[in-house]
Specification:
four-stranded antiparallel beta sheet; transmembrane; transmembrane helix; MgtC/SapB/SrpB/YhiD_fam; 2 domains; Alpha-Beta Plaits; about 55% helix
């Protein structure tokens, strides 16, 4: 049967999508191996069906649109931070890999996969060495209303911005016994620190934040 001649294309789509999915799975992203393999295989199947039935690749544009909607569902905004962009892009790219494999482009499909790995495994570590991305240590003094369980929220917000708490000191506020003060030492990039401070200021019950405060400052 003519359809059997397309099995190598489908196999290549599964293999290359698996590579991308494993990288996402290793980084514990919301879309992992199964999602990427299914998207890549689905795109390849659509390409094969288009070629067999219509003799061209007129379905390609519809694949791009459909995967665009799927990728949009992986992007969400939380506390002014956009997450899922890279995963959505990887799903979109794996559809392109599946389309290339389904069309029988045995050189282009692996080349796209290699380009993805180059970006994620080589270029990303290089960006961390840039001046704006270097991790620095900052001290935060945060005063908040006591008895509302805000400490857990504060720590969660800091973590959501990709920052690490290296030291935490809790002390009673000398201004108001109904408030609590903490001194935090956090590690992260300057941009992440600024974004974290903005998000912390928006937490109901947080009364004051002082960046790079000294332990004896009020």
């Amino acid at each position: 049967m003519a359809e059997l001649s397309f099995l190598p294309q489908l196999g290549l789509a599964v293999l290359l999508s698996l590579v991308v999915g494993m990288e996402r799975e290793f980084r514990q992203k919301q879309a992992g191996i199964r999602t990427h393999v299914l998207v890549g295989l689905g795109a390849a199947v659509f390409m094969v069906v288009s070629i067999i039935q219509f003799g061209d690749s007129r379905i390609a544009a519809q694949i791009v649109s459909g995967v665009g909607f799927l990728g949009a569902g992986l992007i969400f905004v939380r506390r002014d931070m956009v997450r899922g962009l890279t995963t959505a892009a990887s799903v979109w790219l794996v559809a392109a890999i599946g389309m290339a494999a389904g069309a029988g482009l045995f050189t282009l499909a692996p080349a796209i996969t290699a380009g993805y790995l180059l970006v994620t495994l080589v270029i990303k570590p290089l960006t961390r060495r840039m001046p704006h991305a270097r991790s620095t240590r900052h001290t935060l003094m945060i005063r908040y209303q006591d008895g509302r369980g805000l400490l857990r929220t504060i720590i969660a917000v800091i973590a959501e911005h990709g920052m690490k708490v290296s030291n935490l000191q809790v002390r009673d506020s000398s201004i108001d016994p109904a408030t609590q003060e903490i001194i935090l030492q956090i590690d992260g990039s300057p941009n992440a620190t600024d974004a974290a401070v903005v998000a912390l200021n928006r937490i109901p019950g947080v009364l004051k934040i002082r960046l790079n405060a000294k332990p004896d400052e009020g």
